[in-house]
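User: Structure please.
Assistant: Input sequence and predicted structure:
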Amino acid sequence: CNCGNEFGKYGPSDSCNIHCPVSETEICGGGAANSIYQIQQAPKTSIPIVPQTSVPGPDPAPVPHGQPSYIGCFNVAGFPLVSNSPKMTVEMCNGLCLDRKY
């Protein structure tokens, strides 16, 4: 999983043919090529304010990230490596990039 704010410096590629290890329906790039996705923030929802009680409750559930949208396949542009987990998915990478403010 690589994150960056710019892409396309080295032009488009037709080499994105490697399926993601965890999700065979997703393409995770190819030889010297990256599958580029627009990361998305989950829509904000209203959360009711509840008065604090003397008994602490469970930690709130993490806010889900939005669905990334596929832009295309591009020649490698040197994005910073965030994770090389063999269990990486597009949605997991989306979350990692958002967490790092990309």
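The first strand starts at residue 33 and ends at 38.
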